[in-house]
């Protein structure tokens, strides 16, 4: 079938809108007509070569749409179903079987090769093979080819064009709180970096009953929104040593939990230094440097550090839970988004990088 997609021809380049041919699905695959897809910093990390992957490639990994065609062995979705696309996992390794598909032994191969495990491609420009299968979806396109395991069926009364970011960024922030840190009512948390992932963590912390929720960022407009979404305190870290403010002015002894969404060594050290004894810090940002270094002086007294992938979620369980929270006013992530048409994807990238837009969602032309 013919599709239109935003392709990255080479590193550090803008996206180009072109037409391609997409093959029919294999037995365990699904073709989804994409309604809209989120723009995530992981897409830009590929562009900037922080994540090595072959090019040209069609990126996009927060897709939402309507099932168009299913492979011969697919039974849990059918044409016409509304779905959100999540990362792929094998379903057979020890981590998948134990309920942790984000740590699938085959995660890198399934999501970052640019082709199937058998080496075959599904996207073509004439005789030229085009990389796809990014998070096994490549949703910067009018149609995406996904695996049955990364298809999440969602209610038809949910706003489909809004739901794509639940597949990666928002489930990462919310899942890191709800699935990993698991705060009890009345406990405390500090979130470093309140972009979309951090704001999802803020909302999840409020929904979990945290009574001290500290937002940390360098942009006052983001801190203001964090307060609207549940933060009880906000700190602009441009001219402040955050851990000192937390320990001396907000909670003597530090917070129970912290989350870093920046991937920066200096910020991660502050996130750890803000913890009370036996506190736990979750790191979710892509770390651009070869080493993560934590000062021994702050990494003592039972404090812990975890690197969390995709919120350690089972998407088929967790994404419907987030939709339920949204419907009940407990996860109002619609306040984060701004919509762009596919032809304006480079504007969406620019606005995201400038901080003008928190969460860009790219809508596909509906032909």
TrEMBL record:
Output the Gene Ontology terms for molecular function. Answer: S-(hydroxymethyl)glutathione dehydrogenase [NAD(P)+] activity; zinc ion binding
Instruction: Name the Gene Ontology biological process terms.
Output: formaldehyde catabolic process
Q: Tell me the cofactors it needs.
A: Zn(2+)
How is this protein annotated for GO cellular component? cytosol
**Entry's InterPro entries?**
ADH-like_C, ADH-like_N, ADH_Zn_CS, ER, GroES-like_sf, NAD(P)-bd_dom_sf
Q: Which UniProt keywords apply?
A: Metal-binding, NAD, Oxidoreductase, Zinc
Question: Is the keyword Cell cycle in the record?
Answer: no
Domain named Enoyl reductase (ER) is located at 6-362
What CDD domains does the database record attribute to this sequence? benzyl_alcohol_DH
The protein's matches in SMART domains, at most eight in alphabetical order, are given as: PKS_ER (SM00829)
Tell me one Pfam family matched here: ADH_N
Report the sequence similarity comment from the record.
Belongs to the zinc-containing alcohol dehydrogenase family.
**Protein name, per record:** Aryl-alcohol dehydrogenase
Organism per entry: Chitinophaga skermanii
Q: What is the lineage of its organism?
A: Bacteria, Pseudomonadati, Bacteroidota, Chitinophagia, Chitinophagales
């Amino acid at each position: 079938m013919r599709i239109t997609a935003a392709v990255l021809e080479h590193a550090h380049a803008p996206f180009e809108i072109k037409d391609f041919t997409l093959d029919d699905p294999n037995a365990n695959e699904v073709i989804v007509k994409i309604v809209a897809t989120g723009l995530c910093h992981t897409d830009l990390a590929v562009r900037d070569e922080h994540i090595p992957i072959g090019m040209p490639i069609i990126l996009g990994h927060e897709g939402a749409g309507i099932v168009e065609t299913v492979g011969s062995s697919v039974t849990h979705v059918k044409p016409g179903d509304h779905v959100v696309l999540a990362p792929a996992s094998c379903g057979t390794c020890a981590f998948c079987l134990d309920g942790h598909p984000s740590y699938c032994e085959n995660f890198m191969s399934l999501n970052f090769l640019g082709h199937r495990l058998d080496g075959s491609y599904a996207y073509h420009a004439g005789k030229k093979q085009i990389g796809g299968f990014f998070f096994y979806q490549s949703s910067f396109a009018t149609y995406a080819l996904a695996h049955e395991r990364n298809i999440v069926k969602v209610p038809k009364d949910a706003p489909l064009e809004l739901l794509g970011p639940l597949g990666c960024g928002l489930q990462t922030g919310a899942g890191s709180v709800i699935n990993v840190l698991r705060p009890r009512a009345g406990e405390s948390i500090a979130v470093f970096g309140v972009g979309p992932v951090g704001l999802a963590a803020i909302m999840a912390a409020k929904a979990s009953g945290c009574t001290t929720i500290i937002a940390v960022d360098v942009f006052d407009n983001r801190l203001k929104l964090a307060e609207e979404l549940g933060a009880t305190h906000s700190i602009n870290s441009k001219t402040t040593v955050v851990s000192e403010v937390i320990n001396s002015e907000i909670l003597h002894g530090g917070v129970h939990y912290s989350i870093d969404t920046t991937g920066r060594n200096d910020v991660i050290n502050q996130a750890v230094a803000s913890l009370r004894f036996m506190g736990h810090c979750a790191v979710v940002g892509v770390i651009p440097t070869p080493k993560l270094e934590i000062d021994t002086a702050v990494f003592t007294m039972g404090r812990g550090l975890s690197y969390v992938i995709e919120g350690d979620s089972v998407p088929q369980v967790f994404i419907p839970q987030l939709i339920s929270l949204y419907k009940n006013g407990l996860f109002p992530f619609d306040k984060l988004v701004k919509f762009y048409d596919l032809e304006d994807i480079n504007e969406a990238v620019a606005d995201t990088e400038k901080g003008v837009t928190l969460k860009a969602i790219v809508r596909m032309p509906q032909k």
